[in-house]
């Protein structure tokens, strides 16, 4: 069984965060993103065993985490909409694999 492990350090590196002030909130964002993806993808526990799916899942979790972290308030700007579209596309592909 392939289990994706996403550490706080990996996410901080991906988001280019080099301070510890936000670690609690960032951990909360990571766990929320993991749960969100698991709930959104039917058959997640079976699909996660495939390496290509696991790679996508890890990237999507990091992207969702970044969106949650960066956009703590409601946002309607173009960049946020672009990120949401990319996430929706990834998740649609993952649902049907």
Secondary structure class reads mainly alpha
* Beta-strand percent range: under 5%
Largest sheet: none
Helix content: over 70%
Radius of gyration: 14 Å
Provide the succession of SSEs. Answer: HHHHH
> Judging from the principal axes of the Cα atoms, what is the shape?
globular
Report the strand count: 0
Distance between the termini: 17 Å
Low-confidence stretches: none
Output the number of helix runs. 5
Keywords:
single chain; about 100 residues; mainly alpha; about 70% helix; about 0% strand
Describe what you observe in this structure.
The protein is mainly alpha-helical and 97 residues long. Helix content is 70%, strand content 0%. The protein contains five helices and no strands. Helix 2 (23-40) crosses helix 4. The chain starts with 7 loop residues before the first helix and ends with a helix. The model has no long low-confidence stretch (mean pLDDT 85).
